[in-house]
Amino acid sequence: MLLSNCKKNKNCKIIAINLNDSKLKLRLYEIGFFPSSKIKVLAISCLKKTLLVQVLDSCFAIKKNMAEFIEVEYV
């Protein structure tokens, strides 16, 4: 399942990040988005274009089109 399709406040685990852009993929790894990381969608914007997610002990806002490259599963 993709992160962009996750329900709010459900705990998930990142399975894979399917990006071809190695710089962007490395940046995601640096801030905690890597396989086996725990992640939770805290909020979804009104227009459903931005997600507020919690990874490790930090919160990040990411665009929905970026979340479509992150594969997750419910824990």
Structural features, described:
The model has no long low-confidence stretch (mean pLDDT 95). The chain has one domain: Ferrous iron transport protein A (FeoA) (SH3 type barrels). The chain is globular. The chain has a 5-stranded antiparallel β-sheet with strand order 4-3-2-1-5. The two termini are 12 Å apart. The longest helix is centred in the middle third of the chain and has 9 residues, at 22-30. It is of the alpha+beta class and 75 residues long. The chain contains 2 helices and 5 strands, in the order βαβββαβ. The chain has helices at 22-30, 64-67; strands at 11-17, 38-44, 50-55, 58-63, 70-74.
Structural class: alpha+beta
Low-confidence runs:
none
Overall tally of structural domains: 1
The general outline is globular
- Level of helix content? 10-25%
CATH superfamily membership, which one?
Answer: Ferrous iron transport protein A (FeoA)
Descriptive keywords:
single chain, 75 residues, alpha+beta, SH3 type barrels, five-stranded antiparallel β-sheet, 2 helices
Structural topology:
Elements: E1 11-17, H1 22-30, E2 38-44, E3 50-55, E4 58-63, H2 64-67, E5 70-74
Antiparallel strand pairs: 1-2, 1-5, 2-3, 3-4
